Amino acid sequence: MGMNGITKRISITDVARRADVSITTVSRVLNKVPTVNKEIAARVEDAITFYKFKPNATAQRLARGTLSTAIGFVIPGFPGIFHSFYAVELMRGIGHGCETMRLDLVFHITDGLNPLRSSYAGGLIFADIIENRSQVEDAIADGTPALVLNHAAGDLDVSYIAVDNVKGGAIAAEYLISLGHKRIATVTGNMQTQAGRERFEGFQKTLMNAGVSFETEYFYKGDYSRRCARLAAERFFALDNPPTAVFAASDDMALEIISVAMESGIKVPEDISIIGFDDNPAGLFGPIALTTVKQPLFAMGEEAVKVVGDIMQGKTQGLFRKVLSPELIVRESCAPPSS
Amino acid sequence: MGMNGITKRISITDVARRADVSITTVSRVLNKVPTVNKEIAARVEDAITFYKFKPNATAQRLARGTLSTAIGFVIPGFPGIFHSFYAVELMRGIGHGCETMRLDLVFHITDGLNPLRSSYAGGLIFADIIENRSQVEDAIADGTPALVLNHAAGDLDVSYIAVDNVKGGAIAAEYLISLGHKRIATVTGNMQTQAGRERFEGFQKTLMNAGVSFETEYFYKGDYSRRCARLAAERFFALDNPPTAVFAASDDMALEIISVAMESGIKVPEDISIIGFDDNPAGLFGPIALTTVKQPLFAMGEEAVKVVGDIMQGKTQGLFRKVLSPELIVRESCAPPSS
DNA sequence: CTGAAAGCGCTAACAA
DNA sequence: TTGTTAGCGCTTTCAG
What we know:
The structure is a homodimer.
Chain A: H1 12-19, H2 23-30, H3 38-51, H4 57-64, E1 70-76, H5 85-101, E2 104-110, E3 123-126, H6 133-141, E4 146-149, E5 159-163, H7 165-178, E6 184-187, H8 194-209, E7 219-220, H9 226-238, E8 245-248, H10 251-263, E9 273-278, E10 291-294, H11 297-312, E11 321-324, E12 327-329
The first copy, chain A, binds a DNA duplex through residues 11-13, 21-28, 30-31, 35-37, 40, 55-56, 58-65.
């Protein structure tokens, strides 16, 4: 039970007084400058532990002139963002990057409307641009190093690391077509996201180019969530002419579709092929290993930190832009159509 | 294409010079002190936008004497932590709490071994204590306001908000017993966590007290993940004398067990009852709504911020300890045994 | 090897 | 209403 009382915060001066040295010397032992007399150093150490003294990090930064060592990670706070494999992988990558670069990681879950309270941050990483374009613009305006993930914001003067989602959608479609499918359905991602729109675009174009017709009844507008996927699956399966394959814009959705299929006695991949997007390890378990399109989320997050960190530290300048290629991962959930 | 060149960081002095006023006046308009002459204020504003001046947050803090306004959230970095509904709900609650208290949220994903680089933080919230007990002890030692979530750390001089997990396990067992089940299995959570151990303890004790025998073949040591749950389910279902009910220490696991059951043609709840833990909304979708034991994760996170924030701001002192009660949520996945 | 002194960029009395 | 003057707590020359 800690004793109470208004304990005034102790500072380097108190320590210096108690050790009977100057504050400079205390500062030296704090910073492990080797040229301090052993005995004096010991005395200082004692005083430090006596007072449980912890240097004021703010004052240190100001004196050292080190501008903020924190990176802000801004994520649109729409419900469910956290529950997506996408956001979580990004976080892990960013967390890891910050750990290795010794940067602090500050989270900002935002509605996108209020201007970010971002004064603490030396750099900003945006998880995507959804309704928060103005925040990105603010960052650009006041010169804060910023990078946008998973959204090739070519119209803004900002760095980004994105994935070629058009290609991703095309890869899925091509694979399904190559297997011989003609009746191919899709559940899209959230169409507010560039990724969602582009995956669908690549998918649809590829179908057209291959001369595979795309019925509107094979289209379901989703939002990456399992819930939507279930609804979509139920609708697809009830069709007079059900699809023989479906492309889901996230693995979570693909997995849910498999569940619905099994519940209805529809066999995967014999009766229906399912391909996902993400390469979520959850796809490895379950009844059949999921065929999917992989995107390197963790690596993106990690690289984002490196880029922004380097700009913050003045090692780099200018815009950094990179578009990564997604990759087909063939497992067990797709096969040629039987009907 | 930004012009390059070593642009020296501009400070309040530059702005003052350009607006031809004292830095105090600039400071005033920065802080929206109302007593500034309109015209002068406008001149200052101009200078500010001209230079794209942003006050140095570090210097502001030092001058204002406001100790850190950041709360650190420390989560053990074991693989999969992020993928659990548990961690994610906590995060949401904490994120929300910080937003309303206007505190910054700094994440620390830690292996538990290295002493936290936590100088930035005015307070710390620990997601649990797993292998990072020493970090909690450090915080206590240097007087950083700290709170542990989901772990009643009575042996440490620290605040906590926990859930009565013994009771949670008991609630699940009681319900199953009341339905008439005699062959009840369980997949536990990670036994490194207090929650995992206590849930099992409450479950087992209740069975014993009710005179329901508990076979070791009905026990599977899990880790909250779907993967373990699948393995457990496969083992349970293959038993000569399979259980008629199973208690899973997380909804994720419960959901996976339902999947395995359906794949094997076992009907839920007719052939087997399943009860989970968490009240994960995912349990609402899927083929049958999941019966579960609810714990108020979001609220815990939110309250934790309030507690730590108040201590940081000197509004409160002393230890705060609270144990919340879990609650039975009856839905469709449990029924009396048929055999 | 140690200490005095001058800031880091800003805020906050206190005067004017 | 505005400016002068001290600091906030620490680091860092520069002498000694």
